[in-house]
């Protein structure tokens, strides 16, 4: 590994999420051109020595870059920067969401997307859209009543709102989230008491029904307020979980 390569990795900070920090550093070096298309990356051992992180962290960071199409690996030869390393599409993969802070960033992104989408859906929804949203809402209610997480049903309901904008780019962008938009491992529902889970389920139903009603009734401002309230409360809960974890 050259002195220049060492300089790349010696700038790596040691944040709470080491894998994310290393992946972000490598991504920045690739996107800036410091690591050029076709260039061979240092070995895992060399990266470990330069950054002080474990082999597991290095491998997870490289797996993230490979999933995003930024690098390729060849058996016995190592990892290389892709010949066309510019990501062709935006995506969020499970490895991206390794901390509550990452989940909060996704919620922040969703707020910007869904706030506008809810308003457009209220203005443009068709009878078919309303029926679809009602079906998705019923499925979510059933999942919550049965004590489930409702992650897939929650995703399907929110996606039906984006479909109702009549702008396919919204739903196509939302598809990059998939069911990991709120990863189950961070929801911590399994740590709730029975009473807490019931209150959580009641809040979920109340907030989702308010969103649906506003869109169904064609009330643009109410739809925007309802989705903002819903995502803001989700954000507040995750902030509480993060703060509680930090103080424990």
Structural commentary:
- Pfam families: FCD, GntR.
- By secondary structure, the protein is mainly α.
- It has eleven helices and two strands, in the order H-H-H-H-E-E-H-H-H-H-H-H-H.
- The chain has a two-stranded antiparallel sheet.
- A hairpin with a 3-residue loop joins strand 1 and strand 2.
- Helix 5 crosses helix 7, helix 6 runs antiparallel to helix 7 and helix 7 runs antiparallel to helix 8.
Q: Could you name the ranges where pLDDT drops below 50 across 5 or more consecutive residues?
A: 11-16
Give the percentage of residues in beta strands. under 5%
Form type: globular
* Number of strand elements: 2
- The whole-angstrom Rg is 21 Å
CATH architecture of the largest domain: Up-down Bundle
CATH H-tier superfamily of the largest domain:
GntR ligand-binding domain-like
Task: Name its key features.
248 residues; mainly alpha; Arc Repressor Mutant, subunit A; 2 domains; two-stranded antiparallel sheet; 11 helices; 66% helix
């Amino acid at each position: 590994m050259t002195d220049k390569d060492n300089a790349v990795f010696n700038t790596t900070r040691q944040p709470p999420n080491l894998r994310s920090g290393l992946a972000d550093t490598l991504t920045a070096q690739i996107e800036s051109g410091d690591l050029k298309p076709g260039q061979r990356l240092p070995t895992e051992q060399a990266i470990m020595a330069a950054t002080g992180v474990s082999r597991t962290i290095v491998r997870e960071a490289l797996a993230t870059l490979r999933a995003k199409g930024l690098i390729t690996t060849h058996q016995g030869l190592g990892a290389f920067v892709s010949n066309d390393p510019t990501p062709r599409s935006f995506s969020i993969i499970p490895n991206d969401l390794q901390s509550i802070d990452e989940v909060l960033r996704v919620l922040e992104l969703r707020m910007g997307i869904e706030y506008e989408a809810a308003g457009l859906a209220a203005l443009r929804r068709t009878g078919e859209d309303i029926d679809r949203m009602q079906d998705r809402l019923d499925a979510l209610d059933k999942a919550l009543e049965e004590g489930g997480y409702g992650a897939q049903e929650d995703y399907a309901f929110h996606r039906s709102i984006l479909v109702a904008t009549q702008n396919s780019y919204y739903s196509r962008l939302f598809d990059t989230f998939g069911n990991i938009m709120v990863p189950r491992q961070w929801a911590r529902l399994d740590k709730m008491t029975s009473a807490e889970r019931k209150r959580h389920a009641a809040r979920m139903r109340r907030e989702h029904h308010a969103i649906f009603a506003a869109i169904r009734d064609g009330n643009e401002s109410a739809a925007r307020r309802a989705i903002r309230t819903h995502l803001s409360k989700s954000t507040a809960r995750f902030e509480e979980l993060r703060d509680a974890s930090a103080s424990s």
